[in-house]
Amino acid sequence: MRELERDSSASGAARGLTIVGAGRLGCAFADSLRAAGYQIAGPLGRGADGAGADAVLLCVPDAEIAAAASLIAPGRPVGHCSGATGLAVLAPHEAFSLHPLMTVTSRGASFAGAGAAIAGGTGRALGIAAELAGALGMHAVEVREEDRAAYHAAASIASNFLVTLEAAAERLAGTAGVARELLVPLVRATVENWASLGPQGALTGPVARGDEVTVSRQREAIVDRAPDLATLFDALADATRSVALRREGQPA
Question: How far apart (Å, rounded) are the C-alpha atoms in residues 18 and 96?
Fold first, then answer.
């Protein structure tokens, strides 16, 4: 993959953009691109044909991309927002993709500063994806077709699985009378340390110290209070040991 420079004057400019899909991402993209000066039609419901638009961006579930693309009037580039899906699903249109490395909730999202995986079947299509990413303040990285599933899995681990992990921590802490709010500063500091120091530098705790007695006591508590989390704990402890083995003499 390679990071692309932003270029607001890109030859692939598509100032008139139709967005299809009125879910969280479609609404967030529409609001942000309007604020950036784009003429946005939508987000429209599924079934729109995009007639009259310079380009069309499909913000629909992965399983519905092909059907949505088949309804788009020919003669304009068509893009999707899937992280794992390639461009073939958009055939026979001139195809591009734009996947934001940002979580979008019911509150919307701020895309500025986030990464964006892009692809394009032609130079013009790739230019459209890069321009849209730049207009949103994102850092565009071209991800090859064969790398998309791995890229998207990494995004899921970094975001979705982190929420699942914190849900487990919140649940266990609750058995000790500790509220989620008290875990938040710890989580934020850990993420910031990982961002600035990398995994080996950020890793602390009993596994990193080789304190297996404490790890065993933790596991016993989990088996007693939330036994269904024991398998998750074991897998994470093993993975953490592997990270600790790669440390370069840094204190735990």
Answer: 14
